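MODEL INPUT / OUTPUT PAIR
PAIR INDEX: 1
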Amino acid sequence: MNDVVVDTNAMRLYPKPKDPLFKDFFHWLHNDGVLTLSMKLRQEYGRCRNDHIVIFLDSLRRVGRLNEITNHMLNDFKQDSHFHYTCNIEDIPHARTVFLSARKKLILAGDAKLGNDINNFPKVNGIKPEARRNPGSDFYS
């Protein structure tokens, strides 16, 4: 699965990012990629009050490219029981969403602590989790 998790601050840039890297990323996600998200991320996206995001999520769902991590799955993830998170407690479900995603990749636009936690986490199912602020095609495609 060619999936990626997108932090709320990065998703807010949809549909008109100024950065060419984000333009290319959203084009890829719209045409080929799979978005993995949790209910908490979906709720945060909704608070952006951007109808384009809601329509985008629905279009991904209709074509089978929206992978939803359930709250039950997040609560069952125990591999981080001894990991010392530095991000806000509200962001831990976002980190777990990355850890439960197929490729364990996060695109973010601002949260350095969440990015550091993702990048410092050990391998999950043999895959090293990774977060980036600048989504080059080498990262997501």
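PAIR INDEX: 2
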Amino acid sequence: MYTMIRTATTAAALLAALVLPVASQAATTTSAGPQHYVFQTRTTESYHGGEYDGTLNLTVYPSGIASGWFRFNDAGDVRNVSGGVSGTQIWLDIGGTLHTVHIEGTLKNGVIDATENIPGPNVYTFHATVEPNSH
């Protein structure tokens, strides 16, 4: 159970990190269409060493709505992602079969930085960078 919660939290943090840069880019574009991005994510937690790496595939629409999917590199589970972008602020909900993770942070210059506090003392940090030529 703890592993599932940690995995979901990591995924959420990762998504937040990925969506933020996309939102700021989408907000400044003159294109009327959606913008698609692929982010490489890294999630760390305050009380344990190591990190959880993943991929966030995200589409940001001109309205600010974001949707896509997330997957940890060491686990094949694909999780739905939904959220929104407003200016440089981004929020994402990363879904799972047992738990949805909510992350909030910033998206600037193709980088998402977010923090998620889950029940208990652990603090999860989510960082994502857009892959070159992914949009």
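PAIR 2 NOTE: The helical segments are 2-28.
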